[in-house]
Amino acid sequence: MSGSNSSVPGGKAVGVAGDPLSFTVHSMPDPGAAVADAQSQRRTALGRLKMLLVLAVCASPVIASYFTYFVIRPQGRTNYSALIDPVRELPAALPLTDLQGQPVAASSLKGQWLLVTAVDGPCDEACERRLFMQRQLREMMGRDRDRIDKVVLFTDQAPLPPALLAALTTTPAATVLRVPAQALAGWLAPESGQRLDAHLYVVDPMGNWMMRAPTEPDPAKLKKDLERLLRGSASWDQAGR
């Protein structure tokens, strides 16, 4: 019949055109490979989740302490010092030098709470009072004093009088550096109408300027501000860098 297959001598089957019939065999998916791929994807997702959880656990104390201090403010509690919002990060390129003129990396200041004061020109009577208060405040922190470093930034190149240098290097010594006034003003700022060197500035261990003391501050009130900061960061900040 027309259109049907027929047998030919030799027993081979032929198609309509007389060609031998051929069969194409397609490979079936390998169930084992599919399962292995799914397991690999699950392991990758689980690894990423674990990494995110570790990062969250590491960062949570810092976040919690700042949230408590800046956001959750019990009624009736006031801060004596001015909080800087948003905080100002220590510029990586701040051109610091030591007293011998050698460059000092700004990042070397990180890792400790800092009490910072600037000295612009000769250290007059007001400057001496700030330096004395800077020293006394650190000592007033008791067992937490080793979590605080004193930093004195001179904004000119004038030689330091021997008596001043001796006072700054007496144990516990301050970190004494030089920095151009214009560069320092890109990080720290006084309150309106005041000079840059009129304040004590508080910098956190991550290098963020976050508090400015009033001019001629009350030591007892400023001490309470510092105690709150040290207490709030006790879970994640330790003495030393």
CATH architecture heading of the largest domain: 3-Layer(aba) Sandwich
CATH topology term of the largest domain? Glutaredoxin
| Rg over C-alpha atoms, rounded to the nearest angstrom | 35 Å
Helix content class: 25-40%
The largest sheet is:
6 strands, mixed
Choose one word for the global shape. globular
Would you identify the CATH H-level superfamily of the largest domain?
Glutaredoxin
CATH domain class of the largest domain: Alpha Beta
Span between N and C termini? 97 Å
* Tally of separate domains: 2
Stretches where pLDDT falls below 50 for ≥5 residues? Answer: 1-18
Topology pattern, helix = H, strand = E: HEEEEHEHEHEEH
The residue-averaged pLDDT reads: 81
Please work out how many helical segments DSSP would assign.
5
Number of strands: 8
Share of residues in strands: 15-25%
Q: Going across the major beta sheet, what is the strand order? A: 1-8-7-4-5-6
Structural class by SSE content = alpha/beta
